[in-house]
Every structure is written in C-alpha cells, then in structure tokens.
Design brief:
Elements lengths: L4 H33 L3 H4 L7 H30 L3 H27 L1 H19 L6 H14 L15 H5 L25 H8 L14 H11 L1 H35 L1
Helix pairs in contact: 1-3, 1-10, 3-4, 4-10
Keywords: Membrane, Transmembrane, Transmembrane helix
InterPro entries: Tetraspanin/Peripherin, Tetraspanin_animals, Tetraspanin_CS, Tetraspanin_EC2_sf
Organism: Capitella teleta (Polychaete worm)
Length: 266
C-alpha cells in the first residue's frame, strides 16, 4: 500500500520547502565561517569596517543560526524523501521548538519594549558622543550618516543639541552638526552636500531648532516612528514565517501519519 495522493503532495512539498531551507542554512554557515577565518572579508565586499569584536560576534551568530537552519532542513529533506518517521518526528519537534522560541521572543519584545527603547537610546547617545567621526569607528560614522539622511533626523534623543558636547564637535569647532543633519541637495550622493550649510549650522544653535535647512527631530524618535509606521509589515512578515513553519509541521505530521498507517497495514 503506497502513500495517498494527498500524502505524496505533502511529502514533496515538504521536501522542496526544506531543500531551500537546507541550502539557506549552508549559505549562512559559509558566510559566517568565512568572516571568522578571513579577517579582511568585509573589506573584500567593500562593506564599512567595524570592530573585530563585533565582526566575530556577528559571525558566530550567523554560524549558529545557519547551523540550526541547516540541521532542520536536513532532517526535513531526509525525513520526507526517505519516508523516515523518526526523522520527520525530530524535524517537527525542532521546528516546534523554534516556533515556540520565536513566540516567546515576540512576547518579550513587547513586554520589555520600553527597556529596549532605553538601551537603544543609550547606545545611540554613546555613539554620538564618543565614536562618530573617529577613524577607528568608520562603520559607526557611516551608519549614523545613513540614518540621519534616510530618516531625516539629527542626533539621538535631543536632536541637534546632542552634538554640542560630542567628540566630533571637539574636532570640528566651526560646525554645530554634521552635514547629514542638514537638508541635503541629494540624499543619495556619496558626499553629502547641504542645501545651505551656513543656515543649517546657525539653526542648530537655536534652543528649538525648526528650519528649512536643518532636520531637528532626534533619530531615536524618528526610528521609533519608522518602526511604528512599518509595524504592520513587520508583524505580517513574522506571521507569514510562523504560518510557513506551522504548515511545515503539519505536512511533516501528515506524512509521518501516512507512513505509520502504511507500516501498520503491512
């Protein structure tokens, strides 16, 4: 007695899904290991340089996540194509654990949202005060420039005033804010060119800067607004991923059930 048409469909759907899952895990592992082995990997890709510690931590995270994805995809592929109830059971269990962890992570993110916001603001303040403009932290500088240009913001929580006591200000006493705080001629230009750099810096001196040449909103608030405005998309993506995992678990259980029935019949 062979598998029913529906069970065969579930089997091959499960196999195809997990083949992509397995390949994605292999690619992630490869990238993570490459970054760990080759310290100059980022420069080969012309990505902004960052600290060795951050590169190592990011690489280990990529390898770890990639390994989990790789093993999960392998179990799903082999379990489906070999019609192995044991592998399918392990696959369903691993995927269920991942799904539960994702749900817990989502709940924790909601519960500790304010703490996350405070930590984000502290991290942003530290970068503004100590790292922006430092040649040894070029990655931080480029990240801030990108953020200020794309979100049309300036500084962290306090707006332009955040730059007043920063290390960058000490190196640039004739300026009040970086050029990326200003309204730019072209935000996509490699070198930022303010519409009027003089008026921009004059506006930054005001206690309540509001000027057509300067972005006055702090980037932490702008980032929060961006997240809120895109929350529906983020929730939709998370829900979609969760649904895919649930369908994969259901397909695995259906295939396993059909195999079990087949063996009992035999």
């Amino acid at each position: 007695m062979g598998l029913s048409c529906g069970s065969k469909c579930a089997k091959y759907t499960l196999f195809g899904f997990n083949l992509l899952f397995w390949l994605a895990g292999a690619v992630m592992m490869g990238i993570g290991i490459w970054f760990l082995v080759d310290e100059n990997a980022l420069s080969y890709l012309n990505i902004a340089k960052t600290s060795d510690g951050l590169v190592k931590a990011s690489s280990i995270t990529i390898v770890t996540v990639g390994s989990v994805v790789f093993v999960t995809g392998f179990l799903g592929c082999c379990g489906a194509i070999r019609e192995s109830p044991c592998m399918l059971t392990m696959y369903a269990c691993v995927l269920s654990v991942l799904l539960i962890l994702e749900i817990i992570a989502g709940i924790l993110a909601i519960v500790f949202r304010n703490d996350i916001q405070r930590n984000l603001e502290k991290s942003m303040n530290d970068t503004v005060n100590s790292y922006y403009g430092d040649p040894d932290h070029a990655g931080d500088t480029e990240a801030w420039d990108f953020t200020q240009k794309s979100l049309k913001c300036c500084g962290s929580k306090g707006g332009p005033a955040d730059w007043e006591n920063s290390a960058w200000k000490a190196l640039n006493p004739n300026k009040n804010v970086p050029d990326t705080c200003c309204v730019l001629v072209d935000i996509n230009a490699k070198v930022p060119t303010p519409v009027n750099v003089t008026m921009c810096n004059l506006a930054a001196k005001e206690s309540n800067p509001s000027n057509e040449f300067l972005h006055s909103e702090g980037c932490s608030d702008a980032l929060s607004d961006w997240i809120d405005s895109h929350s529906a998309i983020l929730i939709g993506v998370a829900f979609g991923v969760a649904c895919l995992q649930m369908f994969a678990i259901i397909f695995a259980c259906c295939t396993k059930s059909s195999l079990k029935s087949q063996y009992e019949y035999i």
